[in-house]
Amino acid sequence: xxxxxxxxxxxxxxxxxxxxxxxxxxxxxxxxxxxxxxxxxxxxxxxxxxxxxxxxxxxxxxxxxxxxxxxxxxxxxxxxxxxxxxxxxxxxxxxxxxxxxxxxxxxxxxxxxxxxxxxxxxxxxxxxxxxxxxxxxxxxxxxxxxxxxxxxxxxxxxxxxxxxxxxxxxxxxxxxxxxxxxxxxxxxxxxxxxxxxxxxxxxxxxxxxxxxxxxxxxxxxxxxxxxxxxxxxxxxxxxxxxxxxxxxxxxxxxxxxxxxxxxxxxxxxxxxxxxxxxxxxxxxxxxxxxxxxxxxxxxxxxxxxxxxxxxxxxxxxxxxxxxxxxxxxxxxxxxxxxxxxxxxxxxxxxxxxxxxxx
Amino acid sequence: xxxxxxxxxxxxxxxxxxxxxxxxxxxxxxxxxxxxxxxxxxxxxxxxxxxxxxxxxxxxxxxxxxxxxxxxxxxxxxxxxxxxxxxxxxxxxxxxxxxxxxxxxxxxxxxxxxxxxxxxxxxxxxxxxxxxxxxxxxxxxxxxxxxxxxxxxxxxxxxxxxxxxxxxxxxxxxxxxxxxxxxxxxxxxxxxxxxxxxxxxxxxxxxxxxxxxxxxxxxxxxxxxxxxxxxxxxxxxxxxxxxxxxxxxxxxxxxxxxxxxxxxxxxxxxxxxxxxxxxxxxxxxxxxxxxxxxxxxxxxxxxxxxxxxxxxxxxxxxxxxxxxxxxxxxxxxxxxxxxxxxxxxxxxxxxxxxxxxx
Lengths: 358, 358
Hints:
homodimer, Rossmann fold, Dehydroquinate synthase-like, alpha domain, 2 domains
């Protein structure tokens, strides 16, 4: 049995960003009052899209520093800043950016109405009441954050990387404009796009299966194949397809397998961004995912993407131990691929060998 | 640009029907108060599934007569009956049945809160306020009513077959139990399942296109191929797949082409049920859909389904004229396939020949 939570509505198409004002002012579902735009700090230096966001005196625009993966401390800080600046709650939060910014928007929305600290809500179904009404505007395709029921946060004090898994973490609306991904640097576009490919293929190779999740995952992978193996991944048709693949991958939101836990280790211990971390994690996993490893390699070659190598050789013993610790806690996905005795298979020595081979 | 409205949540899997009580009592989104079950009259003679529906003194169960396609008069009558019986509005409507029952549930929900008559809301975005909270429990797969933003009604006084196309016609939740379709008669199962195949292939052959709609339609068709060309269409795996195909086809809810307008004529003029009417309409359309016509024929053969023939020979000139009139009003789908000058192509003589060939 699978409970599936969907974003109630999307606006999809080139130029959709220009419709933000219409959505905010005329959609009866959108509450009236101050709008807070949480925007990836990348746009502080690339302001053209910001002109499409209607800003009144009561509204706020806050740039989200995405140098590092989103942290619980950062969520606490942004929420506290908004509370003191507005003297109350905003009516709407618009999150505009990649997965890090969208996850921040979801987490800040939850925290503002639920109180306490972001770390209180890391886990499953701990968010008590709906967050501030939230609209997602993805500017990168692949993370699936726009449709998923989680927002992944790292607690740098405890080293825990875990999402607020909750129905309340689902956006109320999405504005999906494939034009926004036209200027993303090619490496970042590839790494992030492959996030969808990885979480869908991990799902389809796992033992926890569900018909709906399978259908979404299969279609998302098919779209990824069209994007990354046929022509230029960043032309208009491909940008549309990757945005749809990302939506479907996020909506599927199945359990993952081996790539994501290894990737989480790289992010927590070494600060590697999620998209690149996935690609690095896949490097030594050909024995577990032979067909997908070959396909991933072909995708990188077809798009002229060269992945960094030599990371493993530079790792200290201490780092290897930390990587093992950060990875092995992900029992759900690891057992999804390897079974209940995953710790006997993924021994410290085996995992060290995997990280050394990156 | 495409606005897409999704059902906010599903519960999917064998045995999901047994979770109705849990959803009604524990889901904070479901309002408290009287629950009205609108149930296909088929279950008056097959009551086992009804035992899974929790019924308190304040709740009501109304059987919906689906002998004929749902009509505006029937919606008016059911809504008036509930108003007088309950002395007010129910808190929740649960629609359980095939597309006719689900469409009735959506229309009654809209009418109860909006007032007036059902025919006032046939068209696009005429429903003013949200209907009664509604949960769909499909017992047949293929119509897509469970995820679509319409509920198709025939006004037998005016001969108009047209839906309440509205965001308010979208179910709030679905309970999707593939076990419920295990006992559907094979012909009905096939005819209704093919509804998804037809509306998706019509969409993909039309000129009004959208990336998301295409992706959903393509996946729904792929699932239909697995169901109807590989093994028994009604085994457990196939029932799951067809339920998912139906969901995706309804969520795509693209514009259709030639099958649905011809089918609408057969329903309005001759009272043929929608699923069978589609199959009959496809019969003479090989020249417009050659590959799909061959595939449809192969699907019927693979499942041992024999479609009725000889209808056309029995039609009077008056019936042919009425069929033409009921079909040609569907300008949106007809122009979607044939272009703006569709009337010059689909002349009365051409259309008569198509109906005669059924």
